[in-house]
Structure formats: structure tokens, C-alpha cells
Structure of Pyrophosphate--fructose 6-phosphate 1-phosphotransferase subunit beta:
Amino acid sequence: MVSSFALNGDLTAVKSGDVTGRVASVYSEVQRHRIDNPLPLPSVLLNPFKIVDGPASSAAGNPEEIKKLFPNLFGQPSTMLVPNSTDTLPSDKKLKIGVVLSGGQAPGGHNVISGLFDYLNDRVKGSVLYGFRGGPAGIMKCKYIELTPEYIHPYRNQGGFDMICSGRDKIETPEQFKQAEETALKLDLDGLVVIGGDDSNTNACLLAENFRAKNIKTRVIGCPKTIDGDLKSKEVPASFGFDTACKIYAEMIGNVMIDARSTGKYYHFVRLMGRAASHITLECALQTHPNITVIGEEVAAKKLTLKNVTDYIVDVICKRSELNYNYGVILIPEGLIDFIPEVQQLIAELNEILAHDTVDEGGLWKKKLTNQSLQLFELLPQAIQEQLLLERDPHGNVQVAKIETEKMLIQMVETELEKRKQEGKYKGEFKGQSHFFGYEGRCGLPTNFDARYCYALGYGAGVLLHSGKTGLISSVGNLAAPVEEWTVGGTALTSLMDVERRHGKFKPVIKKAMVELDGAPFKKFASMRDEWALKNRYVSPGPIQFSGPGSDASNHTLLLELGARA
Amino acid sequence: MVSSFALNGDLTAVKSGDVTGRVASVYSEVQRHRIDNPLPLPSVLLNPFKIVDGPASSAAGNPEEIKKLFPNLFGQPSTMLVPNSTDTLPSDKKLKIGVVLSGGQAPGGHNVISGLFDYLNDRVKGSVLYGFRGGPAGIMKCKYIELTPEYIHPYRNQGGFDMICSGRDKIETPEQFKQAEETALKLDLDGLVVIGGDDSNTNACLLAENFRAKNIKTRVIGCPKTIDGDLKSKEVPASFGFDTACKIYAEMIGNVMIDARSTGKYYHFVRLMGRAASHITLECALQTHPNITVIGEEVAAKKLTLKNVTDYIVDVICKRSELNYNYGVILIPEGLIDFIPEVQQLIAELNEILAHDTVDEGGLWKKKLTNQSLQLFELLPQAIQEQLLLERDPHGNVQVAKIETEKMLIQMVETELEKRKQEGKYKGEFKGQSHFFGYEGRCGLPTNFDARYCYALGYGAGVLLHSGKTGLISSVGNLAAPVEEWTVGGTALTSLMDVERRHGKFKPVIKKAMVELDGAPFKKFASMRDEWALKNRYVSPGPIQFSGPGSDASNHTLLLELGARA
């Protein structure tokens, strides 16, 4: 019986009894004990409650356009659970609910599903929960398993998305919406919970709108997932997974810091996952106090060039060298290059040239570059130049994502330091070590915070569906307080939306929440960074603890943002 | 007052009151709580004991040569503490002791020093402990600080070596021995504790021999340190740091495994620190059950070629693909290349050619390679070929250490899979992701095991010096039992030694303990690996816990070796 199921197999409509998911007998001691770790719920969910709607909502931007795109849902109020003398939802009407994981892994996804399952089991007995397999494609192809208590059990408090797996497909075309409708009708779905990031929640809202327009009873509720931390707002204070991922990275950074200080001879350049926003890098900096932290949003706002960034790093290294510190730790967001305007310009020019011309060895092709782009190109280390010219994606475009930014920076810093040495401005020794922390953080065992937050999100999503809501995102608030005091409700997805013009059409988007330079987390960092640069204030958060000291702390970004709001 | 001291500064003979080491006020919650975590001692150390010598010892090999090299120390018995009705050591004679950290960082070093300090404080009041700064160079240059309770306090149970820092110098030449003697005399040292790996402990023994030969009273005791786990024997069952480092790497590997299973589309190639022996890789495999694990010692014993290793990996990938698993996790020891005889041969030939000839673009130089080396060279990915030709160390030698083995293997596997695809033997999709886990593991907060083991090693080293022993390595045994039942003693360093012939001279060495193919850990792995290859038996150990479930487990290697010995 000990066997894993083929994740890519062609299982359709199997009951979970027929497939064998995780088997706790091959679990580590920590994994095993996490399964039965009790999950506290906000007290509003433990006692009779009623659901109270707020005022009509608008949109984050361009409300007229959002209204046109969501004629049935626009203006919906957000909603909140409040204690009541008796329960107000029917306990006798069984529900058929589907759940899907969408996009990249984030610690806690399994607990959202567990929370949803437990709500149905606790309050709407006889209900059925279907897990769509492999992401939104599972909805379109009607690939699912029926989730049972036995099947779900070994996934409780565990990392990963492998209970039902995820996928990156979108439900976009009329045919795809049609497929989703067929599945909803075939399974007689009362509701669907979409666990995903900004794109997936936009998609969830389009699905909700479509079902309502077609008079299909299936309601759709979203849940905020992404380790990147860029799906958040006043009412949705955090996306799940961010807390765990940052703590995993911060553990490693802290270890590397102590190593740097003990060895005294390496500069560690640590690239951190997070292509669009630099929240992870900022949070890791607040947890560990590195000597240098590059925040993409600041680079973009100040229109810094790659040379500016290099010079900043080199300046700090030179000053530290005068203090006899020839070591340090530098954090860089994965998406740094995307934030530098001149790099975007160079890439665009290269794509154009490579599409139409041949790259001659003599370098005549370079004459087609603008002056600024040529200067930048010549500044880049040779390996990066070659990478830009040689490695292209299937559309023939330069693959920026493949550039190992930390290694590129090490080389550029080396070159600049060599120059300063010859000018007599630097006397130290520089040795760079590169790191990329990414995949390690997406599937770790969720922290107590993420485990509890996700459980409440899932449980709350169950309430929202049970009460007939659609087009909302499950919202759990007051997160700085103990779990009992957390608030539970739903936020109108349309209220988070704006439009973008693409190919001449308006497209609804939930804007990614970027690092705000006047936000509390960045301001705190900015007020400390000069001290961190020259004096060593390294903090080593250590490994995530599940009990005892340090096990109940949440992250700095969340607390600072909540504090600034309070 | 919150300030770190300049580790590379020229502080000589400062009292620790004058320098500011770590300041717990910038500690994380977990760091802070670890400081005061009580450290249990073996009960033999808590009650009156006497010291009992065993029989005369010999050497691990070539005892006649070892006897010539250590005329004063050869044959010394190992020694063991046993309970006694009264204490047998004088409590009124104050001691002056030095301690030094030598070589690479390993979690627990600070606790060895704390244990030594506490022994002196508990049992030989009024004694002084000097910490030599920056490794053996600190002894030679007489750079030290006097350790005080206040100075040591924030380092208790903390990772890193930054309390006094480490270094890689050796005390080898007559002049260097002379310098060490001068320091010993100047500080009136009764004893010296050398915390290091195989080389450093050999050095410690030479120092002990030299002091005795010169009638200098300074005794020398070693302590077994290395995350690589290759300093061990029957009487020294483990080197400290291995437990913590492996658990840190295994946490990351476990996370990556869940990610691989959740995503279903990546093969993660994980290179693990450990250049000489593959203990770390083997231990991580036992903790996590990867699909493929390459053990250097097996590659060497079976005289495998790089092509053999590639084919083995590709065979498993093809078989997994038939089972619909297009993902997996592969562990590779950092030192893999050094274990492959044909690679050594190629490197030797390249060094010879590069020293005398120019490498022409047309490739005529390749004719100077033997057939076997030429074939291997042509098999290597282009980037690796270039690296071999271009990057050389200051002596003009090819820099094998810089080769990123995991990336090289990904490219070779890609090429071979492409070939099999064209032959119709493989239909899957392959995407490789590379990782190197190294620096993250050297300075983590020590596990409970390493924290306690190190504390006992240091405390025991104090006993050995107090009782007048020299040339022993602190030995704590019975490690599978609870701490109270651990044994404490010292093992004659000469008994661990053999000789190697270098430049026509015999040189004493403590032979590195390699992975033994008929040892219990490898046999256990070998009995499981076929199952792990095709079925997925991933185990995710999770983050190191300091309290609660999982916090008291030791590692598989140690338990299997102790079990096989029992």
C-alpha cells in the first residue's frame, strides 16, 4: 500500500480511495508530529455568527471599465462575520464544492484545503469536496478526486501542493469558459475555491461573473496565495506562504552571515526569489540586517543604472575595507534587472537586432545599438554578453530570466574594485560567493503563522460559499492579534481591480502590490541600512520553530504594515 | 556599546573586556533563547571520578615509523573517566590554558570553548583561559584574548567561530614551532586545546611531542571538528558539526523534493559540501531518500567513468519517465570529480600541456592528450572545457574545485537524453535545476546533539589537561544513549595515525575516514536506493527543532555505525 500516485497520470473522476497520496509512514518525526498539531480557529468561527455586508464597493482604478467587465458583480459589498446569538446558515443543505490550486507553490496550500474540508464536515455534513488536479486545467478537463478525511489527513500542516497539484493554465478563451461551465454542471457544483495569486484571483472573478451571467449556480471564492507577498491590500493583509518562505531564506542568510563574520574573507551575494516585487528581499533584510540590500522598486523609482548599483555596492565595500571588514552579505532581488530601465532598453534593442541581423564577430552589429545601450553592453561581463546573444527563448527573445544577477554583479564589482585599487582608493581583498535561494522556500513545512492563517482562510471560504457569496476573496484580518481575535470575511474581488490596456482592449487586473517606498517596512529598512552597511548588526533567525521560543512570531513586513495602519 | 570588533584588527594581548564580541541585544528570539538553554553533562562529570588508563596503544598503520616521529608520545594509553568515591584531581592548582579553532567552521565550536571554560570555572577556580585569535597563526603571533564569563556568554549554543575566529595556517617549520614555544612560555601555558580536523589534530600531536621533547610543561589536547564527518574512529565516534550541517542540508533537500513532486517537471541536481569524503551526501540521502545519490567512494572503488555516472543517472530518468515521473532529486558530493580516475588523468595531462605549450584555436594541442583523455575532454560540455583551459590557480594549475559539478552533469544528462530521444528510447521532458548547499551549513545554530556533544568534548578536554594528559583527543562515547550515560575520556592521537611518504619523507597523518562500502550506513543506503529511484519515498526532515518533537534525534550515520559496532 505504500506507493505514491502518478501525478501526471490520466486519472479522471477517481475517488481518493482509489489513489494513494502521501503516506505518513515515510514521514520524518517533525512531519509526523505536524499532522496532528491542533489548528486554532478565530473565535468568531467557533461560535454562532451572522454575515454582515458592508457598503457597496468600487474598484482600485477605472471603476467604469471594471463595471463594464463585471456587470453582475461590480459594486458588491465586502462582508464580515460577526458573533450572533444563533447560527444563520442552513445546516441541512449539502454542498458540492470544488477546490483548485493555481500557480507556483506556497507553504500552507494544503491547510486552505483542510480548512475548507473541515468547515464542510463540521457545519454542512454530507457535503462533497472535489479537488481539481493540476491547476485550472483540471477544471477544464474535469480531472478531479473526491477528497476524503483519510486522503487529506497526511497533508495537514505539510508543505507542497502535491495533494492535488497545481498548474499555470488560465481559463481565458470562450471555449475554456465553456469547458469550465460543463464541469460545473456535470459535478453540480455549488461552489469553487480558487487558491492563487493576483492573476488567478482575477481569473476566479471572471469565472464568478461568467457563472452568474449564465445563471449557473456555482459560486467562486478566491484565496490569496503567493510567497512573493505582492497580493495584498487593506482588507487582505497578507498572501499566504510569504511568512514561511522568508523565514526559510532568512535562516540561510543568517547562517551565511555568521560564516562571513567567522571566515572574514567572503562577500556573499544572495539572490532571492521574487521576480516582480522585492518584498521577500526586504523582509529578509529586516530579519537579518545584511550590509547591503538592493530593492528593485527603489532602483526603478530613482531610475538607477546598473553602474549606479555597482558603484553603491563598491562604495560600501571600500568603506568596510577601511574598517578592516573584508567580508559581508548582500541581498539582491531576483527581478533586479527588470527594474533597471536601461537594461530593458538594451534588451529591446538586442531583440530587434537579433531578429533581423546577424551578429558578426567583428562587432559591426554593435553600431546598431544606441549609445546608452552600447555603453551598458560594454560594461557587462563577457559571460553575460554571450548569454544575451546566444541564449534565446522559443520566440527568439533574449532570456533575461536566465541571467544569474548575483554572479553578474560579483564580476562587475570585481572589475570596479580592481580599478579603484589601481587608483589607490581600495586596498582590501575581495572574494565573492554567489547564492540563489528560491525553490527551497516554496514547499517548506508552513510556519505556525501560515498554517493557522491558511486554515482560517479555507474555513472562511467555506462560510462564504455556504452563505451564497461569489466573487469574493477570503479575508482574514487583525493578524497581529492572537488567532482567537482574527476577523473573518470576504472582500469583493472587483474592489481590488484596475484595468490594463492590452492589444487595444481593457483587461482587468489585480495590481501587484509593490514595495512602497513610503511604506513602513521600507522606511524602517531605509532608516537602518547605513548602520547595517558599516557596523555589523547581523541577526541569525535560526531554523523555523514549531514549538517553544520563536514559534509564534509573525514577519516584520506584516507587523510594520499593520502597525502603520493602526 | 553595541559594536562588533574588527576581526582582522591587530589586537594583541587584549583582555576580552576591551573588545566587544557579540551583543545579544541584536539576537533573534531563537538565538536569545538558545543562550540560556541548559546543557546537560554526562553523569560521570557531575560526580567524583578518577581517570583510568587503558593498555599501551599502537598506531593505525606503520607503528615503527610513528614511533620514530613521536618518540615521547608513542604507545600512550587511551584514558577513560570512571566514577569514584572521591575526586582525584587537585582543586587548588590554578591552570593557564589556551584554546584555538583551526580550519573551516563547524556548528558547535563555541560550545567546546564554553565547556572548557566551565570546567575550569567549576573545578579549577582561578584558572585563566586564553583564546588564540584567527587560528594557529594566533598561537605563533601570540594574538589572544583572555576569555571572561561575560565575553563567552552570548556565544553559548550559537553557531560560527567568531568568538575567536579560525585560520588555516599550520605550525610546521622549525621557526613556527619555535614561535609556538615562545608563546607557551610567555603565557606560562599549562595546556592548549586544539579544535580542528584531521590535519589540525595531527598538528596538535606534533606540538605535544615537541613541547614534551623540549621539556615545556604545556600539554596539548585535540577535539574532533569537521562537518565533513571524516574524522572518526572506534573511540572518536563522530566529529562535531556533521550533525547540524547535514540536518540543515536535509531540510533544504526535503523542501526541494516536495517542490519537485508538486511541480512535476524539474530534476533538481543538488551538490553538497564535502570534498574528500561523501559522508554528508550519504547522510542526507538516508534522511531524505532522493531518487539518485552519487557516492564518491563507490565511484572510485568501481573505477567508474564520468560517462558511467551520466548513464546511470540517465537510465533512472528514462525509467522514471515511463512511470510518468518527469521529476526527481539527485544528490552529488562536491568532491565527485576527484573520485573519477580518468578525470584526474585528464587534469594531469592538461596541466602538463598548459605549462609548456600554447593552446591553439585549431585544436592541434589536443593531439598531445592520450586517447582516453581526449575522449573525456570531447565528452565535456563546452563551458567546462573552457573553464578547464582558462581558469587556473596561481601555480598555473587547472582549478578543479571551481567546476560546478551539478551544472556539468545537467548538461551531460541533457545531451545523452537528447540522443536517447532520437533513438526512440526516451519520450519524457527534462529540465534540470542546480543547487549547491555549502556555506549555509557551516555556521548554523548547533542542534541539541552538537550543542551537548561539543560541551562535553570541551568539558572533557579540561579534565584531560587538569590530569596532566597530553597528545590525546577528547573522546565522548556511547552517543546513542542519553547524555547522562555518555562516556568521557581521551584517545592517544598517535593511535589514530599512519604515515604518508611525501617528498621522500614520512609524514604522520590521521587518515581521513572515508565512506566504507561495507559499512552500515552505505549498506543501508544501497539496500534502499533502487526503491527510492523509481518509487518516491521522499522524506522531508523539516527545520531543526530545539524543543518538542524531533529535537533530540541524532543522525543516521552515527546511529547505524554505533549499532553495527554494538
User: Anything to note?
Assistant: The longest strand of chain A covers residues 96-101. Chain A has a mean pLDDT of 93. The two ends of chain A are 53 Å apart (CA to CA).
